[in-house]
Amino acid sequence: MAKVWDVPHLAAGADRPVLDPETVYVYNMRFCPYAQRTILALLAKNVPFKVININLKSKPDWFVESTFGKVPVILYKGEIIPESLITSDYVDELFPGPKLHPEDPTQKAKDRVFLEIFNRMIMAYYKCAFAKDAEARETTVKDLIATMQPIENEIEKRGTKFFCGENPGMLDFMMWPWLERLPMLDCMGISLPEFQTLKVYMDNMWGTDAVKEYGLSTEDHYKFTKQYVDQLETIDYDFLIPK
Ligand SMILES: N[C@@H](CCC(=O)N[C@@H](CS)C(=O)NCC(=O)O)C(=O)O
User: Fold this and answer.
1) Which atom of ligand 1 is nearest to the CA of 54?
2) Which of 122, 108, 81, 98 is nearest to 44 (CA)?
3) Is the peptide bond before 183 cis (omega within 30 degrees of 0)?
4) Which residue from 33, 152, 161, 243 puts its CA 20 to 30 A from 122's CA?
5) CA of 196 to the centre of ligand 1 (A)
6) How much is the pLDDT for 231?
């Protein structure tokens, strides 16, 4: 069955969608890891929402004029809220259901600090995936592995099923999109050592409803990313949409 995100990516010239102020909308791009954060927060909170996918190579004027030109953006009750972390916090605070952030301010602060550490992995991941040649790749792989070790250490230290305890929480969902993409590097001939605890953790995340619902296969991530690596003029954002 088609999901709410299985809608074509709107390009320059597309009509501005007519919005119902009582509905939550997300400006999204199906393969964007930042937007995935917001979608995961919405799914985890069981908030009904609609998706407006945006062609980021050919952005509609109405999108550029009302945003920073990036996804995700949440539109709700006339408000336009950008940025993945801000939108996810907004969803967590605005809607009922289990809180994704820990109630304890100290734990919340610690989780945020860890997300800063995790950011180093995000940067290293992009350098690795888009390395120009074998020599550059060799250095970036080393850097990437070095940024993965603290993630392995942290989940080991916490000793819980998820970073946030027995259920996944905000920190888990904010990190997940890049963890989901890591196996794609294998398709690029980049092999990473196995981090045992991280592997168990990732299997646990794949077992959660939100991740299962929105997650993509390694093959689909690769098919999409390869278009960027090959610097194609036009990107096919819609290849997953059932015809
Ligand atoms: N800091 C932003 C980053 C979002 C971002 O970079 N999104 C990319 C897609 S993955 C984007 O919209 N790029 C369009 C552009 O930069 O023109 C966030 O956390 O939401």
Assistant:
1) 12
2) 98
3) no
4) 161
5) 31
6) 84
Residue among 30, 31, 34, 74 to mutate when testing ligand 1 (max atoms within 8 A of CB)? 34
Q: Kindly report the CATH number assigned to the domain that includes residue 7.
A: 3.40.30.10
| Number of compact structural domains in the chain | 2
Chain mean pLDDT for the chain: 96
Q: Is 83 in the pocket of ligand 1 (CB under 6 A)?
A: yes
Please give the sequence-ordered ranges of beta strands (E in DSSP) within the chain, or none if there are none. 25-28, 50-53, 73-76, 79-82
- Structure letter (DSSP) for residue 64: H
- In angstroms, rounded to a whole number, what is the distance separating the alpha carbons of residues 74 and 132? 35
Is the domain of 132 the same as that of 82? Answer: no
CATH of the domain at 151: 1.20.1050.10
How far apart, in whole angstroms, are the C-alpha atoms of residue 96 and residue 45?
A: 7
**Claim to verify: residue 86 and residue 52 sit in the same structural domain:** yes
74 CA from centroid of ligand 1 (Å): 13
Structural domain boundaries enclosing 57: 1-100+237-243
Q: Which two tokens stand for residue 5?
A: 């995100």
In the numeric block, the tokens 């550029």 are attached to 64
